[in-house]
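Q: My collaborator sent me two sequences in one message, no labels, and asked for predicted structures for both. Can we handle them in order? The first one she listed is below.
A: Yes, handling them in the order given. First sequence, followed by its structure tokens:
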Amino acid sequence: MWSFSFLLFWGCCGIYTWGMLTLPTLGSMTRHEQPRWSSSSLDGNGCTDTTMCPAYATCTNTSRSYYCSCKRGFLSSNGLKTFKGPGVECKDIDECSQSPTPCGPNSICRNLPGRYRCSCMTGFSSPTGNNWISGKQGHFTCRDVDECANPRSCPEHSTCHNSPGSYSCVCNPGFQSRSGRKSFQGLKEMCEDVDECASPRSCPEHSTCHNSLGSYSCACNPGYNSRSGKKTFQGPGETCQDVDECANPRSCPDHSTCHNSLGNYSCVCNPGFQSRSGRKSFQGPGEMCQDVDECANPRSCPEHSTCHNSVGSYSCACNSGYISRSGKKTFQGPGETCQDVDECANPRSCPDHSTCHNSLGNYSCVCNPGFQSGSGRKSFQGPGEMCQDVDECANPRSCPEHSTCHNSVGSYSCACNSGYISRSGKKTFQGPGETCQDIDECSQKPPPCGPNSRCRNLPGRYECSCLTGFSSPTGNNWISGKPGHFTCTDINECLSHGVCPEHSECTNSLGSYRCSCKVGFTSGNSTCEDVDECANPRSCPEHSTCHNSLGSYSCVCNPGFQSRSGRKSFQGPGEMCQDVDECANPRSCPEHSTCHNSLGSYSCVCNPGFQSRSGKKSFQGPGEMCQDIDECSQTPPTCGPNSSCRNLPGRYECSCLTGFSSPTGNNWIPGKSGHFTCTDVDECANPRSCPEHSTCHNSLGSYSCVCNPGFQSRSGKKNFQGPGETCEDVDECSRNSTLCGPSSVCTNIPGKYSCSCLPGFFSPGVWSPEKPEAFKCADIDECLQDPSRCGPDSVCTNTLGSYSCGCVVGFHPNPEGSWKHGNFSCQRIPFKCKDDVIPSNMQVQLCHAGAAVEPKYVSFCALMNATLSVLDNVCENKTTVVSLKSTAKRLDSVIEKTSKWSNFTKEETSTLATVLLESVESTTLAAFLKPSANVSQTIQTKHLDIESKVIDKECTKENETFKLKAKGDEMKIWCSTIKESESTGINGVAFVSFSGMESILDERFLKDLQIPWASSKKKLKMNSRVVGGIITGGKKDGFSKPVIYTLENIKPKQDFESAICVSWKPDVEGGRWTPSGCVLLEASKTHTVCGCNQMVNLAVIMASGEVTMEFTLYLISHVGTIISLVCLAMAIITFLLCRTLRNQNTYIHLHLCICLFLAKMLFLTGVDKTDNQMGCALIAGFLHYLFLACFFWMLVEAVMLFLMVRNLKVVNYFSSRNIKMLYLCAFGYGLPGLVVAVSAGLQPQGYGMYNRCWLNTETGFIWSFLGPVCTIIVVNSILLTWTLCILRQKLSSVNAEVSTLKDTRLLTFKAFAQIFILGCSWVLGIFQIGPMANIMAYLFTIINSLQGAFIFLIHCVLSRQVREEYRRCTTRKTKPSSETQTSGILLSSVPSTSKTG
């Protein structure tokens, strides 16, 4: 609790350090003194002292003295072969700077101390191999490597050309390199087939190009044939012509029509047929056109009709009783309808005396009243049935006397006999109820005998006789009822012959007659004479002839005219004679002639280009003929020069000869517009007359094409015509391979060629076809360029036509770059090498390879050089995979020699340990750099265990962890930490455990931090193996989540021991253990858990002895917290149950006690519940809120106390009673909630740490608690100081009696106790520095852990009112004491006026 309380306030300020609380006191360390040498050591054999000669020198002893001579490959600084004295050095001879170089031509020389190393340039090899060092066996000579002897040097479909130190690959014809270069190296390039089909000009129109490996072919599309008839061909000279498939009658099946199209054709079934497949258009005889059964479609024919299918068609016929709207018996299509036939509209549908009743599609006949059917049926159809009349007259009673019964069809009637009339006056009647009476016919008007007669009445009848001049067929005295019909008619006298003269007409009149002459005759002397109408010119119309006849006349139209009515003869001027158009008859004139009509006549004239057989220009009749005139046989030629004339019926056609043209165009016929003239055609004006890369030469009526220089015709002809010929480029480069000289590339260009140097070569002269001798390719030394093409930290090696790049020791090529592509770069190896591990270290310099070593350093240098040799091999290895197992065995042998380590000085031990630890890390990282199969490894040796793990796809979840184990120790690392490490290549982690190193790097190497309480007696011991964490990324520290190390204790931990997690720092005094960067998370008897925010080499040191300060403070903190919880619980019960104490101040005390109780209880039980991250964050949030609420209620306490004391000095200043409790609760609980809500919203991940459930102290989130708390402490301190000043003034002014009565010591105690109640004692955390830190730590822990006890003591125990309530509760008294005490009232925060009664 003490450490947590301190962390609450100062955790973010950096004052608190783990070292202050956990590190033991360390004694001063003894230093190793350097030995002093005396001059006596030089007596005798001078070479026994290895310092007599410098490094890289050999000491030779003589009888009196000695001399030094530089070793082979070194030269003394004074130039002498032998020398003495310390002022001379042996400097390395740079053999590689000599000329010629010792390695020979085409080689790379690298200088080494006392020797040199030879390697061949790229493209050369030596029988001794590369990296040959002088002094080794064999003779180093670089010879050209014939890369072309290796079939894999060049890719498929290419030809290899070897050159000194290099080679080039050229793709075969029909192929090209993927990069587009003509020459290249290596299998990384490929020769890809040239897709000639990508060029639309490769094949003619209407053809398909088929690309093949190194070639191509053209094939006419279906529906086309090549002009030559070939199925496949090359080049645009061929054309594809359309095939008319419809010319083959078998192309389409029966009942179909063939439609030819460009490159295709289609068959379409005739109407009434459809293809078997259902397609509208199709190809091939495999399809058939089947008859369409239109009758299968119910909509083909309308309602009330029957469909009759036929081949290719169908017909509809209306059903019986219906008729089509158009009246057709058969028809097609739904547009027609069948309407009901109204049979009753046909009078023959039913027999006479019947009524027809029409119905939908039918009808019926019913006999009318008075009739009955012959069959006796009431309704029937057809004329075969008859309606027979019923004869009512067969019954004599049907009619009365003097009447006659008349049967009628379907009825009967009674009619009075002639001379009688019915009583009712009806003419006809039925039934016996009527009688017939006699009629006096002669009195009727008109008389019954008719005009011109005489009538005499008789019973039931009358008698008639005619007057004179009249007669009746019945004769006179005719009585009604006799046969015949009496009628007096006029006697026609004109019927008698000779009544009137000849050529006259007799006209009868009533009772008489008269005579008159006929038309065309006139009377004279009682006779009729003829009239001559032709004597009148107006009798006939114009263009006619009049012909007189006896009693008449006729008009006849003259030849060439016809009457308007079409009659040949006619009368009267009303008729006209119109001209006959003989030309309307096509037979009037012969063929090839024109008919010209004239008034009453016509003429025929031969058309232009024809003449009559007789030679007449105009003629009549079909006997004549019009013959064609041959204009083309005329001289001079009708069409003009350079033309061809073609005779046509009645005309001619002109066309120009080949090579000539007319503005009117060819096939000109007279009568068309324009003047036909043939002029020479300049074929050269048409760019298509000649093929590409040729020149056109025009001539009269012709032209010729000549290929340009550098081209030749495909046929070999010099002159040719037409686009069918092509001019092909002459490949000068293939004809002469040495055209451009060595180390050059000849590039064929259409019509010419160009020369360029191969990559890595240049020519001082620019190539031109005019001066080809000026072009000469020489090698470019790329390594002389500045800046270097290979970049920094690299080695450039020039080769013939190229160069190669390598990296210096400690660097390796960037895998993403390549010197061949110009982006080569060297990256530092992602692990430390010798110069990085111990830069400029004296101990390492003493052990320089090849130098003389002092005897006392022999063992140290042996182990150091053994370790560095492992590191050098790893750093210099660039090709092979690093064997982690073999290197672990070599390093294990170094650890095993612990007996030698004990003889080393502290500085030597720390230096060697640092080199060893760094070598293990570098070796492991190198194994990650080139893993054998990207798999995890577990290496176990006697003194060294390594578990490495390659993280590939396993790291998917941020909260996922990986555990690695080695020799009983364990490391747990978060997935997020691996991502934070910023690894660019392979993600890998490793865990190393050293066995035996703990006895070497023991507690003596713990860094003395000059801790103030270091005087306490303690014992330190190393209690774990040395372990180390390794990660591939560049970031090694500052992780957001710690790396958890679980170390196995060598000896079980005792209760009085405290564990310290320490990490190895190579930069501290050459290598020391320090507690910084790692914290202790858990310590059990068998294991110790440490958390580090960095990848370190780690160990556990146990501190033991007397009870440590940490345990004392832990004990004080927990005891004080438990006492405070008990006191707070008692205070809460007191404030709740004591009713007489209830007031505003008591409620404020109650809320403060509740908040403090809950905060301490939650802290005591839940601050270390870090297993569940979400639960830990919730606990941290509640702790944040509860502790803030405590401080806000402390602020309320301070303000209320100040206002109460202020009222003692100033009357009615401001009463605290005016503040409502609701407002105080809103302030005490609301503001802390607002702070927590805002903090959680801005940084929700700030709640909960890996080792405690509190606010994160590493990201600054702790200030969301420290800010408000610091402000409240400052305000409370000011208010409390001000309150005490006011109270002091007030107490000094009261009367002496009161002053002496009051207990000043009690008053003083309560005043100072308010400092602890109001949280002002938290400022003690500031003074935990310097020599007083120990005392301040105890004070801070005691006071703050007992805050609840102080509240109970001041507000309950020392309050008279509370004590009286306790006494009353125990003694059952009901009346409280009325005595008050000023000091108790004031400083217990009770009202200033006492309660009485």
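Q: And the one she listed second?
A: Here it is, processed independently of the first:
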Amino acid sequence: MSRGSSPEGTGGAGTFFECRVAAVELGALLCRIPVEGLEGPPTEIRLQQGDTGFPLDDVIAVDRSGPFPFVVEKQVKRTLRIAPSEEPWRKTVSQCLQSLHQHGPEIDARRRLLGVVATGPVRDLEELAKLAKAADRPCVDDFRVELAVTGRRGESYHRMWRHLTSTVAQLMTAPDGTGPALDVVEETAFRIARRLVVQIEPETGGATYRSLLGLLEAMVVDTQRGPGAADVFRRLTDIAAEYGPQGGVIDVRMLRDLLHARGAVLRADPPALAEVEAVRRWTERFLASPRVGRQLGGRLRLERAQQVEVLREAVGAHERVLLSGPAGAGKSALARKLAGTMHAAGGTVFALSLTERAWHTVADIGHEVGARLERALAAAPGGMRLLLVDGAEQVLTDDGALLSSLLEVLPRAEGGRWRVLAVAREQAADGVERVLGRVDGGEVHRLQMQLLDDDEVRSVLAAFPGLRRLLRSPRSARLLRHLFVVEQLVRAAGDVVLPRQVLGEEDIADWVYEGLVRCGGVRRPGGGGPDERTDVYLAMADAVIDGHAWASLRGCSGAAREGLVGDGILVRGGAEFAFAHDVHQDYAIAVRLGMSDAPDVTGVVGPRRLLRGFRLWAQMLLARTARRAPARLPAAWREITSRAHDVAGGGDVRWADVPFEALFELGESRGVLAALAAQLLDDGAVALVSAASRRLPDAEAAVPVLDFLLAQADALAPHAADAALVCTATWLLALGERTPRELVARVPGAVACWYDGGPRRAQEAACALACAAERLDDDARDLLAKIAFRHPLSVQCVVEDRRLSLPLARHEPALLARLARSFYLGHPHSQDHVDAREGVREPGWPLVSRVAREVLQRGPDPADLGPFGVLVEHAPDHGLALIGAVADAATSAVMRRGDTRAARPVSVTWPLAGSLRTYVGPHRVSAWLWAGEAGPGPVIAALAALHRWANARAGAGAALAEIVEQVLGCGESLALVSVVVDVLCQHAARIETELDPALEQPAIWLLPTTSSAMVAAVPIVVSRAGRERQEAYRLLGQRLVAEHAALPEAQLAAPGVVERQRTRDHVFRTMAALLDCAQYEQVELPDGRGRVVVNRAVRQMYAEAEETQGDLHRFVESFALAEDACRARDETDTVDVHRLFERMAVLEAALEVSPPLEGLGDLEDIRAAVAAVLVQRAAGEDGVEPWQLHWAGEQLMAAAASTPSALTSTDLVCEEQNHKAGDRSAAHILPLLLADEDLRRRTRLTAQDTSTATAAVASSDFIEVRNTLTTALTNQWTHGPCSGPADRLHTEGLAALNTMVATAGLHPPDESGNRQPYQLTSPVPTLRTSTTAILDLRLAAPAVSALHHAARTDCIHRAEADALLQALTAHDRLTWTKQSADMAKRSRPWRRAHDTITAKQALAGDRGRLEETVTAFANEPDALVDLLLSLARQATTPTQITELLTLWPGLLDRFLTSGRRCSGHLREALLPAPADGTRWPAQPTWVIITTWAKAHTGATARADHLIRILDRHQLFTSAAIALVLDVLGTDPAAVTCLSRSAVPFLQRVLTNPVLSAEPIGQHAHRLLDELAASANAEALQAQRALEEAPTLNRD
């Protein structure tokens, strides 16, 4: 429901009466009867819509059942006395005027009416209604006649007419007292009166009310089961009172839902109401379930208000929202809280969790809920509807089948759509997003569940002070951000102070076991003793290890089982138990594996499911050993790696990383890393660094590993050193200022040790050194400078990433400036020098646009880009020198190109330090300051940074003269002058003589970015000057105007300024006026608001300029008229043709009085479009005057004659698109005149006229004109049969197509490579035999389809058409592969037209043309790609599909033979996708797919295409997967580089429990593991998602 303004803010009728009127309208909506002013029943009622385009805003009735809406907007007043002095009446008329201004054409067309509703005075309202009836005349003149006649009879409504015209005249009077003409007043009042609807309603009762109650009782209300009609009307009044202040829009479905919610029972209510109620009861029980905790420790409720608000806004703005986050982060509680709030507010919510039940299908869900979900969800009340799907990570267990089915049952109709909020763990988020998006193709909005913020952590510590112990270490303090960990600690420890060793998750697991499972060794009444609870806990762990998520736990203590259930560790499902949370499951496995009688996991089925528990066990073992017997750490490491190797069976590469993950996740790992140095460096640290690059969760967790690597830098093997350099740069950049200082000190030495001097790791080395800017020594500086010299592109990240440039600017500004010069400007002797035409390097820069930033409100602030801002702020000398050098280089490059008028240099001077400096550059460079002109990104950023710095210094009180010296002293670009002038103008009140050099030079006044600033500043400068200086300024202005007037015209061109004489004169007149102190005067502001200084001469110039505003209005009207005429011509809109003609006549008259400087080209196009509309209308009906048709014929002939011929054109303009152009209108209508002889005679055109015009547009240089003509010819041929040999449509049409082909001739290239047009004298024989490309295919292409259509018609002309078509086909086969690359690229319509014809015939059973084409291109088969795709695209019927599948194997045999070289495009075209909405038979389709796949075994680059085709055919079987794996091959590097779909495909295979257990599943698993081992980021993410699967055999 959309919202409008509120009556509280806008005033209006009494609340009760307005709601009663609205209730009457709502009753009509419910009964489907008309309201006052509408001929049909309304489809929606709007309330309080003043800010959405309805000036009379109280109640609006809309009928959208027709082709366009009918609207009655009504203003409601309890009383409405009609007199010019009555304020309610004046306000109502003012609102009518506003509506007339906004919706005039709709009001005049009677599609929008103006209504007033009031109780009285009855006499006034009745007379006003009589006036409205009398004014219902076609025009005001007819109404004047009516007034004259009725005036003699003494009709009472004349008084209303006087009141209306007087009120309109008063409201239209300008503030200065200037009133409108009488004719204008009467015309406006008439337009209001004839569309006025007057409605008299009593405050209670009344005939309308009684009639409505009768209709409600007879048609709508079910009085047997609910309240009667009067009660329903009261409920309608309540709805109006509720939704009126909100600016509501109510349709009939929504109204019925609102009445249902208020207890009304209506007839024809859906039978599913009982099922809707079942869904409601299920949701209430689900949201109230204690399974999701709402308080920590039973006493602290974390409201997560900010998270809830973000989630609420997301659900309100998007249909599909995915909330993801780590396990135990509070996602479910947050989502359920929002759902509960919406449910309590009256919204419709269906909430469920996919992981809390063993559901397989939607029917299973419906059975447990007690409703058929498809019916229940469709019948749910309107308003906000939300489906909350918790536990969406269940998609990892069935490849999203259940979630997809659930989404499929949601209603799709507009007005009944549901919003979906899915909640999933972050490892499964990508999979859930794919499922959400693929059901209806909608966008999925993702939200990441945030960790606890600082305020929330403080609340936790205040409530549970025992947790403060965790703050002593940064790593353990991170645990306080995780809600689930905090919850477990609180439940285990309560207020007890935690032991000092609690640092990591291994300690949490240990503490949960001791404190929560064993209750600290104390028997809990009714909850079992410590040993009994341990037995239950470990028995459940054994069940999970054996592969069972649920277990009966027979033989275990009943009290202990129930105690663990009560403590939230286990859950009960019937007679079986399971772990309540995956984290508890992992903790139990870890504890079990650490016992002396731990089960042997080497033989379990699917050991990968135990990976998290195994890792935790390893962490616990390392932590305990480090605390109790550090000397035994190497032995513990050997045990961990040995067991991991045994579980892997020697072939699962994933397990090789698990010991290192345990090492990385330790709460305190520094000492363990040091104790294991010998073991970790045994292979040169290759395994350690490889695992770190893949498995470290974040930069903070990497600190101990980074410390170890930096300390052991010289002990790393070359491969490990290379990877360590990458990791170091990545981690340091992520850590930023949080990097420990002792680590920073060791970075330079390690980089020098690891970096080999080549380009491969130059960027990483530069980044790492930049991160250590505060601790660089001379050797490190030299190394960074050498990298910049030898590999300048590698330092781009250093100079442009603020995280790196800022520390360099602080600690090494000279080095940063040197790096920036190397990158932006290059070195003359560098192998990687800067292109002289560009001046500066800018690879990867964002588009820096003033429009994007200031108008569209997007894009970065240029001053924040690059190193310029930070460098000039921290080291001004270095920053200014760099900015000046960059500006000069870019300016010089623009001047060197010199290929446009805008590049002509302008020279200005400025006195600096006793000498006169010259600044040059084209006008365009001055606009770089504001990103108002396209230019190099770095120079725009540099100037923006310079401007910000200079402006800040001036604002801080620095001397303006000093700032001028600094800015202009850093370079010689004209852009620097624009910076200085703007900064001075912004501080005009402090200027003495600093701006004088700019005032004395007209070239500066004419710079695009300085003129407006100087206009604002000069009055301040002049007014503050002494008398002597004021006189000097006045004389300066006179001198500048005189010098300008004396200049010859050739010197007056000012690039970048509108080049009209009057504009130049205006600039210089403004300069002189502003510099003349005698022109200034003080003017009193109205209402005592003070005085202001104005310039009389400037004000006079502005007044003169206002007189020319009519140009703008005429431009707007001509634009609108052209659009309306073209829509009517193209039959995409219906317009009043007479009104269209009148508008054109008015525009012509206006342009005669004041012709536009650009000429009448647009008017000629408008004339042609209007002429086309007149001819079309005359062909279908009467009503067009003969003289108008004659005029139309003349305009169309003139338009046709105006199109440039392809034979004489010298410009490559043929691809221009302009649907408003006159020749397009002529081409659209000429075939109609050829087909309708009577119509042609009525336009007074001769047969020769139409023949000549048709030939002209057929030879047009514009492709769009030719396309328009052939489309119109084809349409006319389709609608009318041929009358014989002399049929003008067919004879002239074929002649036009011959002309079209003949005028597309092109000579061979001349010495300069240019091809000149010429006319083919005999197209058919020439094209059949010529082996040289002699056609401009772009110009000939429109004829192909038209000739094909003509050759298939049943008339005598078909032979001629077929002959020309065959000639074009022969020329295509002879020359297509010989076309220039540019012609082939621009000739897709030609290729598409031939291929469409060939495919259509082949699918119809005629393969002759196909065979000829394939044979012709046998040596250049790439030319067949579009034909192959067209064959598949056009096969939409069963017969065509059968024909396609019959001929396709032959094509495969021909082109996929061994040894034949084919492009990738052709190979993919040989395995096409079916047309949308079609299904191919399984058996022949499978034959084609297997043939193609076997021909591409090991061709990794083709795998993505095979996956797409299999998905289109919905083939996801073992055999299909095997084909994909064969095509992917076994090389992980190739898969990473050549396939984007491989990892998602492998993940789909492995989330399917049936497929993952088969041999192809093992194959897929190996490939995914190898990809992850090669550091493929996507594979690593998929691997983590699979490992985080939420449940194990839950059913």
